[in-house]
Design brief:
10-stranded mixed β-sheet, 13 helices, Dihydrodipicolinate Reductase, domain 2, 442 residues, Rossmann fold, globular
Length: 442
């Protein structure tokens, strides 16, 4: 399963509009179609509505009320579709937003590219590594502009933090950490019983390529994220944002190895994903961890930030509104072996400690509208968007590997070129899954 290199992908994706069937002028509106308009889909729709050079021309969702709500916000009178393939057949649609549950992303993405549409796909990009690699290949083959919804990639203050770290600002980074902290105890998502679906046809459409399961309210809409048939859990929901930023800071494409521990320790709901999880990746010189603690919401570090990078000269803390560097204190003396009796030396050593660097900080915001703006600009210029398919795939894949490590209870060594585990053949079965007939990935 050899894939395109980053250089190959960017070379193909940056080809000019000579191969594009219709060149958008600087003042033309990009005609948008939306697939999935609940929760996140509604938020992304709002982000695009801030810009005057686009218009909503088509909507698709299983719920009419979601489409009606979106239509009222739009300047135009968008057409409504119950089947996403009908929307993709609509020749007036230039680009589509895919904001469905994760298990639908790959199918809709591939079909949209083959239909000649540029694609904004919400994160995580895919449900499996195999799906993500196929999405990278199809985007390159069809020369589509793609923006993956990892919108930290379009925040100026995050880019500034990345550039500071990669320029050596905090020294070599040996540890990077991310936290997802929320207390869902004691009810969690509840425990509704299985039962007949309100509409068997709609339930079948919801499941799509996923295995058939009895209808359960918690398997629908936002709570689908607590079930592995449709999502990678909070590791791919929140964790993929953090992995994307940390990979960017480190300048690393993929880990060398991964392991994980966790489980359902306190919650008594019907979730499948853990309520407590620790994932550890070896990125070759840097240990990266993700802590998912969903039964306690106390801060994960002294700055209550979502991410931290620990360098030899300082520690950078990053959250959705700012980044800050706290300097390390270095010693001007060599530090030989000491005993508890070396009190005089201890005082002398402590007195010589000096900051290894100046404190640094910056304010900012994560604005989905900026990510939408970059996508619109990229459609017009035919230049890669801030978070192209390959970037989204690499960040998503790293988190998906964490789930495989948890499911197999193992330490897994990863070959990024072949996208296979090299020390556990059985673990490779989790890199893909068999779609429910008649669905197949093109």
């Amino acid at each position: 399963m050899d894939g395109l290199s980053r250089r190959d992908f960017q070379r193909i994706a940056s080809l000019t509009a000579l191969s594009y069937s219709r060149v958008l002028g600087a003042n033309d509106r990009v005609r948008m179609g939306y697939i999935g308009l609940g929760n996140r889909g509604d938020q992304v729709h709002d982000a695009f509505l801030e810009w005057a050079d686009q218009e909503t021309v088509a909507l698709c969702d299983l719920r009419d009320d979601y489409m009606d709500f979106a239509a009222k916000k739009s300047r135009a009178h968008p057409r409504k579709y119950a089947d996403y393939r009908k929307l993709l057949d609509d020749k007036t649609v230039d680009a589509v937003v895919i904001a469905t549950p994760d298990h639908w992303h790959a199918l809709m993405f591939v079909d949209a590219c083959h239909a000649g549409k540029d694609v904004y796909c919400e994160k995580p990009l895919s449900l499996t590594v195999h799906e993500g690699r196929r999405m990278v290949e199809v985007a390159a083959e069809t020369r589509r502009i793609v923006q993956v919804g990892l919108n930290w990639h379009s925040a100026a203050f995050v880019k500034e933090a990345v550039e500071f770290v990669r320029a050596g600002g905090i020294g070599p980074v040996t540890v990077a950490k991310a936290y997802h902290l929320v207390n869902e105890w004691p009810r969690g998502i509840g425990n509704p019983p299985d039962g007949p679906p309100p509409s068997p046809e709609a339930w079948d459409q919801w499941l799509g390529p996923a295995p058939w399961r009895p209808y359960n309210l918690n398997r629908t809409y936002y709570r689908f994220r607590w079930f592995y048939d449709y999502s990678g859990g909070q590791l791919t929901n929140f964790g993929v944002h953090y992995m994307d930023v940390l990979r960017w800071c480190l300048g690393k494409d993929a880990p060398l190895a991964v392991t994980a521990m966790g489980g359902k320790y306190a919650e008594r709901d019907n979730r499948e994903i853990p309520d407590t999880l620790e994932v550890l990746w070896d990125f070759g010189g840097t240990m990266v961890t993700f802590s998912q603690i969903n039964c306690n919401a106390a801060p994960g570090n002294i700055k209550s930030s979502e991410m931290e990078l620990r360098g030899t000269k300082g520690t950078m803390y990053i959250d959705m509104n700012h980044w800050e560097v706290v300097p390390e204190l270095n010693s001007a003396l060599d530090v030989p072996a000491r005993t508890p009796l070396d009190r005089v030396y201890e005082k002398s050593w402590a007195a010589t400690r000096t900051p290894a660097m100046e404190p640094r900080s910056a304010q900012g915001t994560i604005n989905p509208a900026a990510h939408a703006r970059n996508f619109l600009d990229s459609i017009k210029s035919r230049q890669p968007a801030n978070c192209d398919t390959l970037t989204g795939h690499l960040s998503t894949s790293a988190t998906l590997l964490g789930n495989v490590a948890l499911k197999t209870r193992s330490y897994l060594e990863w070959d990024a070129r072949s996208e296979r585990f090299t020390n556990n053949a059985a673990a490779n079965q989790y890199l893909f899954y068999k779609y429910r007939p008649p669905y197949r990935l093109g």
